[in-house]
Write a structure and sequence with these properties.
By secondary structure, chain A is α+β, with helices and mostly antiparallel strands. Chain A has eight helices and six strands. The mean pLDDT of chain A is 97. Bound molecules: 2'-deoxyguanosine-5'-triphosphate (DGT) (4 copies), triphosphate (4 copies) and magnesium ion (MG) (12 copies).
Amino acid sequence: SKYEHVRKYELDDELLPGCYIVIRVDGKGFTKFSTLHNFEKPNDINALLLMDEAAKAVLVDYPDIRIAFGQSDEYSFVLHKNTAIYGRRSSKLVSLITSCFTSNYVRFWPQVMGEDRALKCSPTFDGRAVLYPSEELVKDYLSWRQVDTHINNQYNTCFWALVQQGNKTPAQAQEELRGSDAEFKNELLYSQFGINYNTLPEQFKKGSVVVMQRRKVVVKMTESGVPVEREKTEPTVLHCDIIRTEAGAFWAQNPDLLK
Amino acid sequence: SKYEHVRKYELDDELLPGCYIVIRVDGKGFTKFSTLHNFEKPNDINALLLMDEAAKAVLVDYPDIRIAFGQSDEYSFVLHKNTAIYGRRSSKLVSLITSCFTSNYVRFWPQVMGEDRALKCSPTFDGRAVLYPSEELVKDYLSWRQVDTHINNQYNTCFWALVQQGNKTPAQAQEELRGSDAEFKNELLYSQFGINYNTLPEQFKKGSVVVMQRRKVVVKMTESGVPVEREKTEPTVLHCDIIRTEAGAFWAQNPDLLK
Amino acid sequence: SKYEHVRKYELDDELLPGCYIVIRVDGKGFTKFSTLHNFEKPNDINALLLMDEAAKAVLVDYPDIRIAFGQSDEYSFVLHKNTAIYGRRSSKLVSLITSCFTSNYVRFWPQVMGEDRALKCSPTFDGRAVLYPSEELVKDYLSWRQVDTHINNQYNTCFWALVQQGNKTPAQAQEELRGSDAEFKNELLYSQFGINYNTLPEQFKKGSVVVMQRRKVVVKMTESGVPVEREKTEPTVLHCDIIRTEAGAFWAQNPDLLK
Amino acid sequence: SKYEHVRKYELDDELLPGCYIVIRVDGKGFTKFSTLHNFEKPNDINALLLMDEAAKAVLVDYPDIRIAFGQSDEYSFVLHKNTAIYGRRSSKLVSLITSCFTSNYVRFWPQVMGEDRALKCSPTFDGRAVLYPSEELVKDYLSWRQVDTHINNQYNTCFWALVQQGNKTPAQAQEELRGSDAEFKNELLYSQFGINYNTLPEQFKKGSVVVMQRRKVVVKMTESGVPVEREKTEPTVLHCDIIRTEAGAFWAQNPDLLK
Ligand SMILES: Nc1nc2c(ncn2[C@H]2C[C@H](O)[C@@H](COP(=O)(O)OP(=O)(O)OP(=O)(O)O)O2)c(=O)[nH]1
Ligand SMILES: Nc1nc2c(ncn2[C@H]2C[C@H](O)[C@@H](COP(=O)(O)OP(=O)(O)OP(=O)(O)O)O2)c(=O)[nH]1
Ligand SMILES: Nc1nc2c(ncn2[C@H]2C[C@H](O)[C@@H](COP(=O)(O)OP(=O)(O)OP(=O)(O)O)O2)c(=O)[nH]1
Ligand SMILES: Nc1nc2c(ncn2[C@H]2C[C@H](O)[C@@H](COP(=O)(O)OP(=O)(O)OP(=O)(O)O)O2)c(=O)[nH]1
Ligand SMILES: O=P(O)(O)OP(=O)(O)OP(=O)(O)O
Ligand SMILES: O=P(O)(O)OP(=O)(O)OP(=O)(O)O
Ligand SMILES: O=P(O)(O)OP(=O)(O)OP(=O)(O)O
Ligand SMILES: O=P(O)(O)OP(=O)(O)OP(=O)(O)O
Ligand SMILES: [Mg+2]
Ligand SMILES: [Mg+2]
Ligand SMILES: [Mg+2]
Ligand SMILES: [Mg+2]
Ligand SMILES: [Mg+2]
Ligand SMILES: [Mg+2]
Ligand SMILES: [Mg+2]
Ligand SMILES: [Mg+2]
Ligand SMILES: [Mg+2]
Ligand SMILES: [Mg+2]
Ligand SMILES: [Mg+2]
Ligand SMILES: [Mg+2]
């Protein structure tokens, strides 16, 4: 049509080749959303599992994602540095992955959160792309997120213990924790509430690592009820340390994950 | 943490001030998705209504959107040229609007499509931002999409008439229509299938225009059953021409919409 | 060659269509450069004329430049909003115009500054591109630069009068002028130094406006010594107001300059 | 002033951290420029030396440049991946380096090209920034340019031998060389013109590599005429291979140049 000229305003936004592409999504206003939907404090297992389900669906759709990491209301997806998907167009990648995550989050909500906890509004996520020129930097990025998980979880565990068990007001709890270090918080949890921080679920302390793994999966049952297994590559959620790099640690065991 | 240095890889992506921002979302692989979910051909009224519902929810959340236009599996949202929302950050805007649209599409699916037509996969949308420096160009953009609506609808109406009523194979139908003009298609519909194209629903021929309008809304009933009305600004869906600019036409009636 | 793959790292940097492109160049470290080359204070007529010469050469090479404005060590070039030059590639435009300006500045230096004032180092300029979506904004941009010219010139005139004629130290002069308004400065110039600011050369107060103008130019002499004139479009330097828009003012007299 | 609002149209253009920044400048229309100024064919030693002088001046001004490579009318400057110069702003870097190169090219012209070969027009250069995420890619980039040097030089040497000594027209020479490989060209030079390509100056075959090197420099003479030397870090031009990486080769001898 005679209006086609408007197409030339659509500019190229290709991301620099040779760099890892990290797409991070983060829930918009989840402070309010989690209250509205009665998320358990500080960690709602189901809410976290729902995040993991949505992330797994993203990995299935985008095989160039080598690893993902999630915590709280956010998930980061790391695409291989040489991916050519959608011509590495920034908006395409950011929008599609954010949309895919959102779609699965909403679709799986009833199953994971329970039919009795209906959605009262539409959860939305923001998304962004960040480029990292080296494997080292990607590992630093993931470490950054996992350290953040730990710091926030420790803080929140103390905060809600003080509020829910210690009968403090939120303001008092905040005041008591202001500026305190990790040791102080561990001590507080143990002495006041008998909580040994180290024995809390790894899921809360470490967040979720998702990688594609070759695994035996039961694909059907024979007539006589024997499970038939087959090897399949599937997204797998781990709650392990991804900061350490020494022998035996995650990166030592997965040396080619980012190669 | 010692990993904070990775933050500086996140670069600014502010969109040029003073330009209208158009965010267009488009269903990923909806050729397949519409078949999988038995969309009526060429137009599934409920599928189109679901698109409109999702769009209306976007307008409610983002008041700087002055007008939106939808057709088929796509929707365009026009933000005012001086919007300062999220610092005009491109990824923020693209991802949030795409996510909001997706979330509402999935959430309202059962209501609008019917409980018996369950989602078999997670619908996803891509999104992009395009800048237009003038009101004139925004109108050209919207005209471009509406002309496209008309062309596609006319073609699809003929195509599916030939296939469903004319017993042609898809290949034959395609062949018959190749290179034909508007007049030929209207004639074909009328002479072969008794369809007067002009009398088809405006919704199919014109697509959906969404604007915020001040309207009387019933907010509650009095005890004696009398409806209580209040003026509210609400997203309203129109199926009108947005190409013409003469007196009486949409733009003449809404002179300040983009001001 | 087998190394061609490195080409794909060169990304597109097309500037948004439909916007005026302003390229501004500014001398790098001209505080030092002007001292090193004994520029007259506060305004060195020859140095300013050299800037104008360089700018004129840029306009001759790039016909899509509609207007340029210069002052101090800077020059701004306004390209028409629909220019398609070099595919509107940002780096191409910024680098070529900055290079062209620099090249002419150095080449014309001896002629304009005098053979006795040799270049002691290589003057360099930075450059940048700024987009403006409307004619109105371009005028505001030019007004911004011209107001700046006025403010700086008034300040510098006072400052150097105090230092050179008033026997103040630079620090004392600065102190005396801190926070003072235009009126105070005019009064100071008049009462202490007998300078009527309004009668200073327009070149200093208004900066230089360059436009292409159709003018009679002497192209040769006949054998009998009669000058032969021809109409030519040539870059012309004006020292006029470009802020006012009323009847008779520059913009009223040149209504189509930016059209 | 009330026009300051136009400043916000100036957007951030920071280049991704952690990547090597290559700035390449290239003469605009040097086919014509070299003819106009009677450059020797195919290589004008003085013209090449002038390029080297300009490049050396750039390295002196921008210490974060680790290596530069020049050939024909182009020069590439490689900035260290962690340079923070000018906040890594793309336009700043591209314009300043292009301007600095241009300025020195024009300023040194008379000295290097000879007073009798005056500049007839103002040479200008375009500039661009390209990012490379790894050392390996930077080496590939430099190899790409050096292979290009070789290919062009071999072609041009044949072409001008055929035209200047072989009495061919340019069209005939072009025809004779079309599609021929390196061996054919070497053979042609040797058999028809007695030229052994391998013995041509390295400067022509390899281009110019510029690095900062610690060297003994004569800084003055004592009264009795004894030269006084001092160690200085100075830009040094080499005409060596930068493609090979084995022991003894350039990269093996300069392992930390890009570290
Ligand atoms: N109670 C509870 N809250 C959670 C859980 N996961 C996340 N949240 C809440 C805690 C935080 O207030 C919020 C995540 O922090 P953000 O920094 O992303 O803030 P928010 O999403 O409110 O704002 P934003 O739109 O991202 O700027 O979500 C959970 O499992 N349980
Ligand atoms: N039957 C039916 N199909 C529809 C309806 N609305 C949209 N579609 C289908 C027709 C087209 O095949 C498709 C939209 O065209 P697109 O160009 O967006 O293609 P598609 O989404 O397959 O690929 P994409 O991922 O956008 O490149 O969706 C509808 O109401 N009924
Ligand atoms: N004496 C004298 N100085 C001048 C003249 N024109 C410009 N200048 C000087 C005054 C200022 O110190 C300087 C221009 O100010 P800028 O803000 O551009 O600073 P400068 O170039 O030093 O630093 P920059 O590299 O641009 O950040 O040039 C002139 O005609 N006479
Ligand atoms: N005779 C002669 N010509 C040279 C010498 N160095 C460069 N040139 C010429 C040969 C080429 O025609 C031209 C460089 O090729 P380019 O691809 O850069 O083309 P040109 O500068 O004409 O166009 P451009 O503006 O860069 O697209 O400069 C030299 O030493 N001697
Ligand atoms: O969202 P915050 O406050 O945790 O921090 P951020 O994600 O870096 O900020 P933004 O979402 O505005 O980019
Ligand atoms: O998706 P298409 O094929 O209708 O055309 P497009 O949207 O311009 O292409 P893309 O989605 O790749 O930007
Ligand atoms: O150069 P300044 O300080 O006058 O101000 P600016 O030009 O806006 O700053 P920069 O040159 O760093 O863009
Ligand atoms: O200038 P060319 O033709 O050698 O090739 P290029 O430099 O890649 O092209 P452009 O200067 O247009 O970027
Ligand atoms: Mg955030
Ligand atoms: Mg959040
Ligand atoms: Mg968060
Ligand atoms: Mg598309
Ligand atoms: Mg689609
Ligand atoms: Mg579509
Ligand atoms: Mg500056
Ligand atoms: Mg300056
Ligand atoms: Mg200045
Ligand atoms: Mg080129
Ligand atoms: Mg060239
Ligand atoms: Mg060249």
